[in-house]
Write a structure and sequence with these properties.
The structure is a single chain. This protein has about 260 residues and is of the alpha+beta class. It is about 35% helix and about 25% strand. The chain has twelve helices and 14 strands. Among the domains are: about 50 residues, Uridine Diphospho-n-acetylenolpyruvylglucosamine Reductase, domain 2 (2-Layer Sandwich), CATH 3.30.43.10; about 100 residues, 2-Layer Sandwich (Enolase-like, domain 1). The N and C termini lie far apart (about 50 Å).
Length: about 260
Amino acid sequence: MYAFTFERPANLAAAGAAAAGGGKPLAGGQTLLASMKLRLANPEKLIDLGGIAELSGIRKEGNAIVIGAMTRHADVANSAEVKAAIPALAALAGQIGDRQVRAMGTLGGSVANNDPAACYPSAVLGLGATVHTTKRKIAADDFFQGMFTTALEDGELITAISFPIPKRAAYIKFKQTASRFALIGVFVAQTDAGVRVAVTGGGNGVFRHAGLEAALKADFSVKAAAGVKVSEEGLSSDLHASAAYRANLIGVMTQRAVAAALG
């Protein structure tokens, strides 16, 4: 690693000031610290958010579950409140990485990093969640902007994410064996407003699939999902899978997600 300074602010105001001054926020560290060890990242100052109590916690507000940005994956996976309101979200959190990653990784860190194969972005986009920051509230459809890119501005920190409670939802992931990231992951949610289908692992970032959404809005069934031909255009092709294979996986994972949502 390169030399850097380290700060651990006790409150959100201090963290925001440090971030505005050019510091790099440190959440769970599951991505940033590894990048620093490989010398792929060289922040001059780290701001550890772990000491800010107001950034952690899970609560129900109206028809939504609000989760603090520093809430660990394991806490989401084991939360009775999340399991009761959005079991698909708890199940997703329980599939992230391994036990050590789930014990250290955070919701806000994952969403802010926006890895193109991460699980949480599919839940945020699939549920039409709202990202709360130190400056504003950002709708999921406006937040994700491509590989490792979001709508966050310099010095802007995620404080919490509000997940609307759907009628039914499910997340199904086909794992890349070595990393446990999603080779393809599909989050399907049926709400009063319609159906949302979010795909992760397919390309430069999480995205919604309009064709699958339209078919499932008309008929929320496995048969309807199976009737949609998923194009390989724009999908990634690498040593793990071709674009055609990923396209097929999107269709299969969507069918399995619908089946799981229907129980």
